[in-house]
């Protein structure tokens, strides 16, 4: 269970089950007949719709969003033609769209600073076969996590970080993201500010965990400020990173009850449990293409 | 807010919004193309799919379930023709189906014994315009609730009940259900056993609230037994009534935390809060045609 | 259940059980021996400690808080002497303290505007015998609630309110608070700003329900802003009113899950359920003398 | 973080803070004056009560339980005399009691079968300094967990187990428990039945995690049966092991929401999250002497 080999073996088994599964995400102006067009297209390509979720931003002149998961025998061989055939439909209905194939696992990078709990939870779920991604690299501005990351066969890169060397640090990080062909960047309690330039490189592809119930306690020291304010619940928020600090589209939030006896240390301890599960949920949903970002909000298709 | 007139006024306004809304529920053998057939049918009848949820019991040779909510201008005038046109499709694909129109409000009866909290919550939600039904009659084996039921303009029928007179009591109840054309029968803490004969009259149309987290504490005295066992959470369960006591399809469950200091009286107090919300949720989902019963379970389309 | 008489009858029964119950709340500089002094005092007055909760703000040089609930046969006749005997102890240890007797029910006023759900929940709990207070007056800047308040035998005062007449409105309200000897003032969705002068009259005796998870969405339109921000949970907060808007000591908070489909109307609907239970809990704890306010936070002795 | 050395270093730091902390648990017939006797005793031994929780099973002729946490400079040197001095008080009031010193860490054994998630969570909390115990041995009937247990410097013993060799297996286990001087035995998804003889060796010292919301789904296959029944919440229960299967005193329970789409595999996945946190909470409370077992229930002093 604790070796790379086993995780790989599990993923191979999963891939086999997933080879005939496709996902189609579409966004377009809402009007009658869209579902008919899409489902008829899939049927004509011998695909059976297994799961379908849709949302209209507005009953009139709104935007239509849909996520379809379909089964198609021999999908791998057919997908190229299917995508080609879809182009005309998309053009006719002004669709933005994405075909995704679960067997083509997304490649994830994890950024972490000193606190390892979120990293550990991600690795644990991944080892367990419950996180459908290849974790291709872990980057940290501390050496602490190296032993157990490398023990799992994952490359660990130590890159010191502070305000003064931010530019060169980010240049190196961007280089590594390219080298490892990273699709998703997970900030698992990475305590450094990212520059707009860096963020723009990875639009809607950086997931952060903020240790408060946003928009309460934006910025630094949320547990300290929660303690000061005397709140009765503390929370955590996972969100896509944008260039407005802690203002990106929220993916998931959760809370736990606290009371007057809980000092800041205790709040952090309770908070770690919340952060772990809130980040993992967000990452899973992203990997399953369940999230659409629209106007600084997320549409979540469970 | 506390008068029948206002509740009626609210419902009129809602009905107006709902006049162009239809719901279609379908159950059939699963195979590719069903969604295409249904969505193309709706599109050809100028209907726009607003909400759609589906479920397959099994990837292979399973049963397919779908609930579609659609918008169609002038639906009232067209629905008869639509339903007629649908017959051939249904026959071709061995569909069981139901067309429902939110403006045709279901007619509900509430049965209650001494404890009024579930009845009160239902009436409150109904007054508030949040329960899309006509409450046409309240039946009780106690007189307690009469004043505030009649104050809302709802007929209240007192029918004494005990084991010895069960047959004639149920005969009278069935007569009233017919007279008031009742679609849904809500047992809001009605503490009498119903005979199989009665239950068969209203298959999948009687919703009960059981004051435990089923299948724990089936039968009488669940709070007493929860206290005896020393559980740390208590719950409530809403379910359709079948002829196996407390074994019917579960619709909704919820729990609250308790501790060793809570005696039976306190458990009941906490439990009332759970019962209220669990019953109301179940009733709402039933009224919105969000529940399909299959093999003693419920499929819930949120 | 729905009449004043029954509510009174219940309260009489409760009073009888409560006649021998006393509560003692103490705040003093922390040092060894305080519990010994207090428990020995109570024992010497034939009182049995039934419940005791304490808290030290700091292990060293901190402040000590304790709430003791004790049983004493014939307490009513003895309490005066007990309180007199306690004076020397209190002086020796620099104690601030309060003796409270559950049978001396606090007198509550409820302020409400148009939305009745919090008022209704309070009245419901009160009718049910679960709110240990006398509701002596309801004040509103709308007439809506009059019928069902007066039906319960509670005086209802309509006082129109707006910015221009605030001074005279508050003068009238203060007069009524004095006339009805009000101990606790509950703002059950009263949508008017109170002046510092008014608030100072009732320090730590005004409980408000704010319809957000504070400190998120301070001020107006919290549900609108929660919708704008795309949060995944909404909440409500009950707190004592101070002269910093929505910044008073928090008593209780709770949340519910929402999603992208929930528009502002739906958020308000879900929010009403949270507001109802969060306000009722806060009021109950206040009535049971379970809350101590310290440095803009609450210590809650459950 | 991942090495034994660091965990030890953390525990040393903690021990230092804890050296002056004592805990006293008392059970005796309820009568006025008990708190006075205990607090005066502690005060006379220069101890300051930091935390105190009590419970009476019954207002009249009940049993009184109290847990006191106190601070005493130089406690280690004084504790023997204190305990000696306490004997007379205990005798006078028919007290059962226990003095506990947090710096004397309890010694824990973990039993595990194939599923490692509960073991992992315990080890994680322990590494993090959040589990105040020495994990002295892990015993399993499978080899899977050996690498990561031994990597933490904890002895791992593989003992194959099945019905036929139960006697000799348990003999070996009892021998190891004695050799390692084990205080607490944690069944972290150990899927073997223990004989009455074994259980009697460790009364109120074996904590099990059962993968259902007891008393629902006692025995084998709870997730399979939860799926069959169509429940809308699944749970887990930690409890002390007695000789009635799954009937021991419940320590903690928690639940998560599930729906009709969750098959047994998904239920197990969700359930693992619940099991992890429910077991860890129970173990923590036990280690902090917060649990008193009385009449097959637990009194929990938080």
Automatic annotation (TrEMBL), chains A, B, C, D:
Residues 23-102 form the ACT domain. It catalyses: (6R)-10-formyltetrahydrofolate + H2O = (6S)-5,6,7,8-tetrahydrofolate + formate + H(+). It holds the Pfam family Formyl_trans_N. Pathway: Purine metabolism; IMP biosynthesis via de novo pathway; formate from 10-formyl-5,6,7,8-tetrahydrofolate: step 1/1. GO terms for molecular function: formyltetrahydrofolate deformylase activity. One of its GO terms (biological process) is 'de novo' IMP biosynthetic process. It comes from the Bacteria. InterPro entries: ACT-like_dom_sf, ACT_dom, Formyl-FH4-Hydrolase_C, Formyl_transf_N, Formyl_transf_N_sf, PurU, PurU_ACT. Its EC number is 3.5.1.10. Keywords: Hydrolase, One-carbon metabolism, Purine biosynthesis. PANTHER family: FORMYLTETRAHYDROFOLATE DEFORMYLASE, FORMYLTETRAHYDROFOLATE DEFORMYLASE 2, MITOCHONDRIAL. Catalyzes the hydrolysis of 10-formyltetrahydrofolate (formyl-FH4) to formate and tetrahydrofolate (FH4). HAMAP family: PurU. Belongs to the PurU family. This is Formyltetrahydrofolate deformylase. It comes from Psychrobacillus glaciei. The lineage of its organism: Bacteria, Bacillati, Bacillota, Bacilli, Bacillales.
């Amino acid at each position: 269970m604790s070796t790379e080999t086993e995780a790989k073996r599990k993923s191979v088994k999963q891939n086999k089950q997933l080879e005939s599964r496709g996902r189609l995400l579409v966004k377009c102006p809402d009007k009658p007949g869209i579902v008919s067009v899409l489902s008829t297209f899939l049927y004509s390509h011998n695909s059976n719709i297994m799961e379908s979720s849709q949302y209209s931003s507005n009953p009139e002149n709104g935007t239509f969003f849909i996520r379809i998961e379909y089964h198609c025998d021999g999908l791998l061989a057919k997908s190229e033609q299917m995508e080609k055939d879809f182009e005309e439909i998309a053009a006719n209905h002004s669709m933005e769209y994405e075909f995704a194939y679960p067997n083509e696992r997304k490649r994830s990078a994890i950024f972490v600073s000193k606190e390892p709990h979120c990293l550990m939870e991600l690795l644990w779920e991944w080892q367990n076969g419950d996180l459908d991604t290849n974790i291709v690299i872990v980057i940290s501005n501390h050496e602490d996590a190296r032993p157990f990351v490398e023990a799992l066969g994952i490359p660990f890169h130590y890159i010191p970080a502070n305000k003064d060397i931010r530019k060169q640090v980010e240049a190196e990080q961007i280089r590594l993201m390219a080298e490892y062909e990273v699709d998703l960047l997970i900030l698992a309690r990475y305590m450094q500010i990212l520059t707009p330039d860096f963020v723009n490189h990875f639009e809607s592809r950086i997931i952060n965990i903020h240790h408060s119930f946003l928009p309460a306690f934006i910025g630094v020291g949320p547990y300290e400020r929660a303690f000061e304010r005397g709140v009765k619940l503390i929370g955590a928020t996972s969100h896509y990173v944008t260039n407005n600090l802690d203002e990106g589209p929220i993916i998931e939030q959760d809370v736990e009850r606290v009371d007057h006896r809980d000092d800041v240390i205790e709040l952090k301890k309770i908070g770690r449990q919340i952060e772990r599960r809130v980040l993992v949920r967000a990452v899973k949903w992203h990997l399953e293409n369940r999230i659409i970002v629209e106007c600084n909000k997320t549409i979540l298709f469970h």
